[in-house]
Request: fold
Amino acid sequence: MNTPVVTRFAPSPTGFLHIGGARTALFNWLYARGRGGKFLLRIEDTDRARSTPEATAAILSGLTWLGLDWDGDAISQFERADRHAEVARDMLAKGHAYKCFASQDEIEAFREAARATGKSTLYQSPWRDADPATHPDAPYVVRLKAPRDGETVIEDAVQGRVVFRNDQLDDMVCLRSDGTPTYMLAVVVDDHDMGVTHVIRGDDHLNNAARQVQIYHAMAWPVPIFAHIPLIHGEDGKKLSKRHGALGVEDYQRMGYPAAAIRNYLARLGWSHGDDEFFSDSQAREWFDTTGIGKAPARLDLKKLDHLTAQHLTIMEDAAVLHELEEYLAATDAPSLTPAQREGILRAMPQLKDKARNFGQILERGHFVLTQRPLDLDPKAAKSLDDVSRRILLELTPQLQNASWNRETLEAIVSECAAQHDMGLGKLAQPLRAALAGRMVSPSVFDMMIVLGRDETLARLFEAAKG
Reply:
């Protein structure tokens, strides 16, 4: 029987959920969910000086907004320190690790001497094979007794066969002199105890894998399948940094992107399924595999994200768009919608989300249902309501009073009015738009009339005509 798939996402809580970390989490989530497996979350909070509860909360919030649910409770690596130390002592007892009493000064002196003679600065402890009877009563670290000869091989699901010469790998520290475990040991112990079968992470961890595999071998534990994915670069091909703009998941939420579009976009950053660009979560779960991950760094392309967002908003249920719109308002510290505004936005949603590329555009186009009389006209709208336009609106208003309130009838009446004044429908639409929305960015005037209803439409036209 095949072993059930277990993947994990293991961020360090030292800041926001980075967009690269979010993609790593997504890849792990897709791989597990597509195979009926488990997706686990571990907070690697052993660096107490830099780890903060606020950062942990930001990570959990970012994953929740992205819709990446994890199985069970999030695990704190720091709280498992006793277990990590237990494994270090176990390796010590089995002869796979040793006590090293070298001081930092001695280690630095070794390296300086090596540099002076042109030799490798890779530290070789004199305590590796020392007789325990010679051990002093002094602080020590526990080092892994790594093989000195041969090779350590990683059969990586993305990078292929990666070979490391053992004489280029040091005896890494597993337990510090104060008894606390190192990150390199903790990761292996946690992954083993959590039953992780596939370690999907950034390729900046590839060198770590060589040392971590040696711990698996020392403990006679099964080695998980590694898949080291290339990092994300900016549009200029350079490693992501603050100069590229948005780096955190919450930045993209505040920019007004829906979570489904971000999931779709991140999945395509470094992974492909033929020529498919736009796809659903269920398709991504079905299609995702490590064989589709490329070896070259992916590049951010916000134009592509905008394009995907427009497609996702088109197919989303109106109520779902409204829900995420309200989350967007909360994320940007904007006032929440009143019940009347929610009702109006929902009525107008089919027109508002059409071709919109973010929630900000939806709100901008939906201004006409969010505002109240008397409308505050922007400069362009005010300019379009000159004396001639106002007289035409005053003439048009009673014609709409008893009309059937449907698009065909409304368009016919407005078109006839425009023809009587020897003007095109588009020209008359400008003052109409100004009167109904107070600005020149909005859905079509007829869509606005339908959404606003007869009474509110006539009241706004009359108010604008009177000036």
The first helix runs from residue 19 to 33. The mean pLDDT is 95. The chain is about 50% helix and 10% strand. The two ends are 79 Å apart (CA to CA).
